[in-house]
Design a protein that fits this description.
Radius of gyration: 58 Å
Strand content: 25-35%
Number of strands: 30
Structural class: mainly beta
CATH topology of the largest domain: Immunoglobulin-like
Oligomer: single chain
Number of domains: 5
Strand order of the largest sheet: 4-3-6-7-8-2-5-9
CATH architecture of the largest domain: Sandwich
Distance between the termini: 139 Å
Largest sheet: 8 strands, mixed
């Protein structure tokens, strides 16, 4: 077993304890603790790519890792890279792309010095799909606001329409977006998927191994040139058996004064991105960049307010202004797009104000709701000047309409009328200080309509109300009737003005009372009964006959009462009375 795997078996335990175990000389180690910034969406796969420039050509490493179910924002994922040629002190360009299914959701790109003596903190930043047209996890930095400044050179996607072409592609042609980088399925290297010496069956094996989370056959075929191990503690048991060299000594994470065998360290800078999401790594490299609108302050992406406070305004020119706020909802204060003032207003000190103008005007509006003055002596304002309104002054407005020094001198009085019914009166108008005066004063109304005289005595607009409430043309006997008012053409004396059948001269008979318990329908002050005879039979020898029809019980029935009425007499064993019930009617 080669020294390429020297630290694989113990790496998970060593990292869990905060220690790294030195490997044999000649094999470089790179340890990455991969986390995601808060708010980044879920990821299922991490794709790690690393490049080291060498005289014989770029040394390239690529591996995929299954992170399904892991929240990288709270639970970083530790990756170990060992590769011959990745010697301590060499500088590697490193890319980590987080995929959710097949879509890139976050990425990191930066330069790191290879060292088996420390763990490098890597923070994945969410990617904007608008910046990554082909979905390969690399942004097109020529687009505005798509890449931090320090990513623009080494990590820009030079062909954002071809997922095979990106800064970490398999072939140099695809890394440089050369003409030989197409998207094909042939055996050549023009598709950027595999180097020329790997046939399509190797590509199938590579895809299978990558899906299983292990190194691809293509990577093994390159003379064991590169290898990666998932050494997150919870995955340590899943590592394959490996030969492990005895470590010369154990080195604390961050110790840069000695090499693994105790020799003096070479003159090499060890990047330090611990706890940093952005900014320099201390070795002319970068710990990452910040999105547009934020600056890197002490290793953190921090808002740099471009204005303040919220709501402040400033004029951009004489008729436009802008407002301080957070129009793009990124928590940073910046100026809004400019807004136009209302037509006619001028922007001053951040606000739009109307500027009054009375130049050449003696009267009228100043353009801002104010006045340039008024006119006197009957003159009116016309086009900003006071002019005489007319040649006569016969209205009542206290204005000298004809400009003769007098007001309303030609006003003509008008006859008026007021009041109604008994309160009706007349008057005449006059003009006093521009106000029309009316001399008409209505009379005092009566307290009630107590007389039936054809006059509205209480001046309420109704005449002789209460004189004939039941509409039988007879006036209520309680009212005073004068003459022959239209309200009661048949006269007065209605003894019950709530029933149209109750009135003087009523000839009809009624079996029910008029409404107040009385049967005096003809207003005679008495209740006359319709049937007043008593019935009787004439007795003969062994026979009898009707003598007279009438009430059979010997008394006259009361008004409204139902009693037996004798209709006939017949002899059977004795004289029998034949009767029928009838109701007594009265008026």
């Amino acid at each position: 077993m080669s020294a390429l795997r020297c630290a694989r078996a113990l790496a998970g335990l060593a990292l869990a304890l905060g220690l790294l175990t030195a490997c044999k000389p000649g094999v470089g180690g790179l340890y990455l603790s991969v986390a995601a910034e808060p708010g980044t969406g879920p990821a299922t796969t991490l794709v790690l790519r690393a490049l080291v420039e060498a005289d014989g050509g770029d040394l390239r490493f690529e591996q995929t890792y299954d992170v399904t179910g892991r929240d990288l924002a709270t639970e970083p994922y530790v990756i170990q890279v060992e590769a011959e040629g990745f010697a301590d002190g060499t500088v590697a360009r490193v890319s980590v792309v987080a995929l959710n299914g097949g879509d890139a959701v976050a990425a990191y790109g930066g330069r790191q010095i290879v060292s088996a003596e420390r763990v490098v903190d890597v923070v994945l930043q969410a990617r904007d799909a608008a910046c990554d047209g082909d979905g390969d996890g690399y942004d097109a930095c020529e687009r505005a606001d798509c890449c931090p400044v320090d990513e623009a050179t080494d990590f820009s996607d030079c062909d954002d329409a071809n997922a095979a072409a990106h800064p970490f592609a398999e072939t140099a042609a695809c890394r440089a977006c050369g003409s030989g980088c197409g998207v094909t399925d042939g055996d050549d290297a023009s598709d950027g998927d595999l180097p020329p010496d790997v046939p399509d069956d190797a590509a199938d094996a590579a895809a299978t191994d990558a899906a299983d989370g292990g190194p691809t056959d293509a990577a093994e075929d390159r003379s064991d040139a590169a290898e990666a191990t998932d050494v997150a503690p919870e995955h340590a048991d899943a590592l394959p058996d490996a030969e492990v060299a005895e470590p010369d000594e154990t080195i604390e994470v961050g110790d840069t004064t000695e090499t693994a065998d105790g020799a003096d360290a070479p003159d090499a800078c060890l990047p330090d991105c611990g706890g940093k999401a952005c900014g320099p790594d201390g070795c002319s490299g970068s710990c990452g960049g910040c999105p547009a609108g934020k600056d890197c302050v002490d290793g953190a992406c921090t808002c740099v307010d471009l204005c303040g406070p919220v709501g402040a305004k400033e004029c951009t020119d004489a008729t436009h202004f802008r407002t301080c706020g957070d129009p793009d909802a990124d928590t940073c204060l910046e100026w809004s797009p400019e807004s136009a003032c209302t037509a006619g207003d001028t922007c001053q000190l951040g606000g739009c104000d109307c500027l009054p103008s009375c130049a050449g005007k003696a009267c009228g509006d100043d353009g801002c709701g104010g006045s340039c003055g008024g006119c006197a002596n009957g003159k009116t304002c016309t086009a900003g000047q006071c002019v005489c309104a007319g040649t006569t002054d016969n209205d009542c407005d206290n204005v000298d309409d004809d400009c003769d020094g007098q007001t309303d001198e030609s006003y003509l009085p008008v006859s008026t009328a007021c009041g109604t019914g008994a309160c009706a009166a007349t008057g005449i108008t006059s003009c006093a200080n521009g106000v029309v005066q009316d001399s008409c004063t209505p009379g005092e109304p009566a307290a009630s309509e107590a007389r039936c005289d054809g006059t509205d005595d209480d001046c309420d607009g109704a005449t002789d109300e209460g004189c004939d409430d039941d509409g039988d043309d007879y006036c209520d006997e309680a009212m005073i009737v004068i003459g022959a008012p239209a309200a009661c053409p048949k006269g007065a004396g209605d003894c019950y003005d709530q029933n149209v059948q109750a009135h003087p001269d009523q000839q009809g008979w009624f079996a029910v009372d008029r409404g107040d318990g009385s049967y005096d329908y003809d207003c005679s002050s008495s209740e006359e009964r319709e049937k007043t005879t008593l019935g009787s039979c004439q007795y003969l020898v062994l026979d009898c006959k009707l003598a007279e029809q009438g009430w059979d019980d010997g008394s006259i029935a009361a008004c409204g009462a139902t009693e037996a009425w004798l209709q006939d007499c017949t002899w059977q064993v004795s004289c029998g009375h034949q009767t029928t019930p009838i109701k007594q009617r009265c008026h």
